[in-house]
Amino acid sequence: MVFTSLYACKQTSTVQQSGISPADYFKDTTAGVKTGGVQMVTINTPKGKFHVWTKKIGNNPKIKLLLLNGGPGATHEYFECMESFLPAEGIELVYYDQLGCGNSDNPKDTAMWSLPRYVEEVEQVRQALKLDSSNFYLLGHSWGGILAMEYAQKYQHNLKGLIISNMMMSVPDYGKYANDVLAKQFDPKVLAKIRAIEAKGDFKNPEYMQLLLPNFYAKHICRIPLDQWPEPVNRSLGKLNESLYVTMQGPSEFGVAGKLVKWDRMADLPKIGVPTLSIGGQYDTMDPKHMEKVSQLVQNGSYLYCPNGSHMSMYDDQQVYMAGLIKFIKGVDSGEKKVKI
User: Which end of the chain is less enclosed by CB atoms within 10 A, N or C?
Assistant: First the structure.
């Protein structure tokens, strides 16, 4: 009980330092029947109306962090690790399953898997949740980083802070890094087998994933031992919408072959004036030097380097990732444009 009390006191002190009391942070301010923060948002699309799932954790009028999951086609669930860090700092979390993902509607129509349409979806979610430039922080991880940057290119006036986590801002550069750097780290015999399967388009071959899991995923996606991968990660990836993933990314994580194959925003990064944090991991599928360059090209950039991190740096370099994310958000909240991480 002594340790519990000490922990509670520490939590209270930290939250109060954020400018909001624990009672206010955890108070449910919604009207009507309480849903634990869940709100289904109706979105208008060229194919009609659909519903996407959101869930708010905490209540801070000044700091609201909307999370864009990766994949494409995974779910919000792998972000659940943030609940162990951000609420104690008074940061409001907003989970969101994009259309076709997790708890949201799935129209099962590949014409709907379009980057411009997803940008408008994010904007409709923002409006429904009443987020604005006084409080709206947008974090996109992996594919979500592409979506976050594309959103910022059109709607940065709605943002208070932007976080691009583990995603290069040029898919051609990403493909080049996979071929020129990551592929060379494979055992040549293993790589030859992988390339042979890909050349045949035999992605359903069980040997393909048997080769990728120990030689690629365990080294570059999440460096925690495969048999100990965090349950939220397994749960999220286990629900991956394959149609969405293959349409946008292509059939392999090892390179890109879908609709995103030519996406490149490097030349447009200087247009981004909103405070921006770029996050890179040493062992990531994304070049950490490229991620640092992103922070230098935007007008008000900060860079968070995770020396032990891979693509899921929020898990395999968790303390560094979370401390840097919190420092950035709190720095921007206090008026800093460039936060030294």
Answer: N
